[in-house]
Design a protein that fits this description.
This protein is an all-beta fold. It is built from no helices and 12 strands. The strands form 2 sheets. Strands 3, 4, 5, 6, 7, 8, 9, 10, 11 and 12 form a 10-stranded antiparallel β-sheet that branches. It has a two-stranded antiparallel sheet with strand order 1-2. It is globular.
Length: 112
């Protein structure tokens, strides 16, 4: 399992490569945000795929996101009208469905 540290706008990866031929490393987080106003907890899986020390892909629940950006220790992205912020230093998930609902919760490292 790779372990990541976000510093500035770059990612530093450590650990073993998930796919040796491509030097690809995968870090997996299992997040459990509570969505309001429904007060329901959803289990979410976040996969960070890195190559040569840089984040190359973000997948949420098995689906690759179209675009993402990194700001300090946070990855910002969106999926299906949900704006998502994942802070890897604090291991937290925050999201917003265009002001109609919101989610917030903790994340833990998991096996890829």
């Amino acid at each position: 399992m790779g372990v990541l540290a976000l510093t500035g706008a770059s990612l530093a990866w450590g650990g073993t490569a998930a796919v040796a031929q491509e030097k690809e490393q995968v870090t997996v987080l299992r997040c459990e945000p509570v969505y309001l106003p429904a007060r329901e907890t959803w289990a979410r899986e976040v996969e960070l795929v890195g190559r040569e020390g840089r984040l190359s892909q973000v997948r949420i629940d098995g689906q690759a996101v179209y675009t993402f950006s990194v700001h300090d220790t946070t990855v910002l992205t969106s999926q299906d009208n949900e704006r998502i912020q994942i802070d890897f230093a604090a291991r937290t998930w925050r999201s917003d469905f265009r002001g109609l609902a919101s989610g917030q919760g903790r994340c833990e490292l998991a096996e890829p």
